[in-house]
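User: Before I run my own analysis I want an independent prediction to cross-check against. Here's the chain; please return only the structure tokens and, at the end, one sentence I can use as a sanity check.
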Amino acid sequence: MENAIKNRIPIHVDLLPNRDEVYSGICIKDNKSVFIFICFNEETHEYDGFAIIRSEEIEKYRYWDKEELEEIKNDNYLEFIDQLPLDNMNSFHDTLEALREKELIAIFTSEDNDSYYVGKIDSLTETKVILKLLSESSEWLDLVEIVIDEITYISFDTSYETDLMKNVLQQ
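Assistant: Structure tokens:
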């Protein structure tokens, strides 16, 4: 993985048998707790925001082959380099602390891999994060408490969160 990080090589990360998920992008940090990457959007064929998963879930990964590299329409990964305080993002709690000022983040939990929470961090303890939820129609909702140990995936700064936030600002 060090080579992929150092040389910014796009990879596919396979989470089987833990979860039936494959994520694609460029890894920018990997330690015993967190795997942070710049997401590749399969629909737009460009890099789109960040995601964080638990390193322990990663069973295998592979570099993209030549054909996959040719699918990149906009090799915009440099827009995302050096935007995060990676030195301060060493656990899921540290990562959430670093994301406190983000307008929106999306969180998936082990409870349900098909649905997720989108919101702004309201407060954070050592074991829980409280999000002010945002609906799909960009309306602010109630607070929800999420146990940090149950978080499997965090994404932020993607086009989805950006579009939702634009709709909030226009209301």
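Sanity check: The longest strand covers residues 112-124.
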